[in-house]
């Protein structure tokens, strides 16, 4: 039920809107007064990111990059007419990397790069193209991936402590950024908006256990 008018009269298409971040985005746009169409698919197979076979990589490219590209290409003729905008969901790790996740990181880095290239091409038609890079957002996917680890509770605590804000994000946090980009960020195109609770800030322990450590010689 719409409660606001921030994006009234607009039609929003959300992919993966059945749960997690996508469901949060559906909710927020409905509350902003938009008409929302969303799709999803049954039984998403959770994939542990260590699976780095070429076939797994290809499937992830198909899902994260080519799926995004194909839908955008289909939507563009209409978006040009309506002066609409595109918001891709990338990931913080596409910018900063992540251990044991080469395919995922590579596909998300590509989503961010594609966002910038498309923003350049579409600006002449008045179509803005931006992406959101979430950090740790508590969703069913996060919970499923944690369940693959030897100590899920410890994994979830680590994920929580990764943010200076001391919590994981909620789908509503990402959704608020999406509504902002769509409805108010009229001079933003080609941006990557981090919704991360500050996870990328500051130094931390980055060396993987087993890395030869070479402390500097401290002058006496
Ligand atoms: N949760 C996080 O911490 C986090 C962090 C950074 C980026 N992201 C990105 O945010 C997006 C959503 O993640 P989430 O955590 O909400 O995941 P999720 O698995 O909880 O929800 C994703 C939804 O997308 C649907 N889906 C999957 N493939 C689809 C397809 N081909 N067509 C239509 N729907 C499809 C699934 O069925 C599921 O309902 C993903 O692109 C993810 O990479 C998530």
From TrEMBL:
<dbReference type="GO" id="GO:0006706">
    <property type="term" value="P:steroid catabolic process"/>
</dbReference>
<dbReference type="GO" id="GO:0005829">
    <property type="term" value="C:cytosol"/>
</dbReference>
<dbReference type="Pfam" id="PF00106">
    <property type="entry name" value="adh_short"/>
</dbReference>
<dbReference type="GO" id="GO:0004303">
    <property type="term" value="F:estradiol 17-beta-dehydrogenase [NAD(P)+] activity"/>
</dbReference>
<protein>
    <submittedName>
        <fullName>17-beta-hydroxysteroid dehydrogenase 14 isoform X2</fullName>
    </submittedName>
</protein>
<dbReference type="InterPro" id="IPR020904">
    <property type="entry name" value="Sc_DH/Rdtase_CS"/>
</dbReference>
<keyword id="KW-0560">Oxidoreductase</keyword>
<comment type="similarity">
    <text>Belongs to the short-chain dehydrogenases/reductases (SDR) family.</text>
</comment>
<dbReference type="InterPro" id="IPR002347">
    <property type="entry name" value="SDR_fam"/>
</dbReference>
<dbReference type="InterPro" id="IPR036291">
    <property type="entry name" value="NAD(P)-bd_dom_sf"/>
</dbReference>
<dbReference type="Pfam" id="PF13561">
    <property type="entry name" value="adh_short_C2"/>
</dbReference>
């Amino acid at each position: 039920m719409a409660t606001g008018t921030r994006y009234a009269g607009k039609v929003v298409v959300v992919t993966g809107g059945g749960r997690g971040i996508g469901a949060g985005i559906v909710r927020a746009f409905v509350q902003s007064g938009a008409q929302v169409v969303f799709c999803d698919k049954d039984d998403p197979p959770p994939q542990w990111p260590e699976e780095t076979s070429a076939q797994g990589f290809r499937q992830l490219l198909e899902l994260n990059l080519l799926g995004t590209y194909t839908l955008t290409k289909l939507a563009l003729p209409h978006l040009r007419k309506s002066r609409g905008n595109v918001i891709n969901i990338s990931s913080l790790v596409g910018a900063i990397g992540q251990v044991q996740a080469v395919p995922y990181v590579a596909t998300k880095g590509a989503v961010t790069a594609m966002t910038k290239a498309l923003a350049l091409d579409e600006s002449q038609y008045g179509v803005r193209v931006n992406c959101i890079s979430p950090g740790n957002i508590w969703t069913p996917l996060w919970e499923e991936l944690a369940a693959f680890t030897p100590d899920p509770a410890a994994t979830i605590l680590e994920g929580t402590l990764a943010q200076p804000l001391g919590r994981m994000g909620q789908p509503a946090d990402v959704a608020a950024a999406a509504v902002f980009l769509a409805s108010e960020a009229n001079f933003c195109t080609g941006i990557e908006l981090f919704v991360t609770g500050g996870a990328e800030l500051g130094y931390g322990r980055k060396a993987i256990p087993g890395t030869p450590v070479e402390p500097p010689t401290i002058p006496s």
